[in-house]
Amino acid sequence: MTFEEMTRGIAEFVRDHQMWAVPVVFALAFAESLAFLSLVIPAWGALVSIGALIGVSGISFWPVWIAGGLGAAMGDWVSYWIGVRFHDRIAHMWPMSSFPDMLPRAERFMQKWGVLGIFIGRFSGPLRATVPLVAGIVEMEYWHFQFANFASAFLWAGLLMAPGMLGVKLLM
């Protein structure tokens, strides 16, 4: 089987099952952004690959991008809520108890950068898991957090998926 035949087969499979693209991307982005879960499920690589599959299959980018942005924003929103709800107990919960320096580092980062830290943290693997959690722990103003959360989530989702989609379209 040639590379071209394999690519055509994958594209057909993705087109035939495109109704799964939105829920799968939402779930992956949610898992990648949710504190605790994002430490054990690194989904960013799958999201980059999905961008390429979108380009190969010709399915619409926009609904998948919206699903990725909403999934990421919801994951951070839940992480923020966990931080507000459980405050100091979080450091003693697994998996944070296994990484004792992670929360203090994220807290120093948040003190230095504030709301801009939500944007920066979205694009850093180790910080992505803890910045929203720490924002909740330190009780960052809710609407400031949500503005930065949603804006950075949609930017992040687009930056992860668009290059693969555009690269494949340029090559084909």
From TrEMBL:
Topological category with respect to the lipid bilayer: Multi-pass membrane protein
Pfam families (UniProt xref): VTT_dom (PF09335)
Keywords from the named record: Cell membrane, Membrane, Transmembrane, Transmembrane helix
Cellular localization per UniProt: Cell membrane
InterPro entries named among the record's database cross-references: DedA-like, VTT_dom
The VTT domain, residue ranges: 42-164
Bilayer-crossing regions: 20-44, 64-83, 113-138, 150-171
GO cellular component, one term: plasma membrane
PANTHER family, alphabetized: INNER MEMBRANE PROTEIN DEDA-RELATED, INNER MEMBRANE PROTEIN YABI
Family: Belongs to the DedA family.
Protein name: DedA family protein
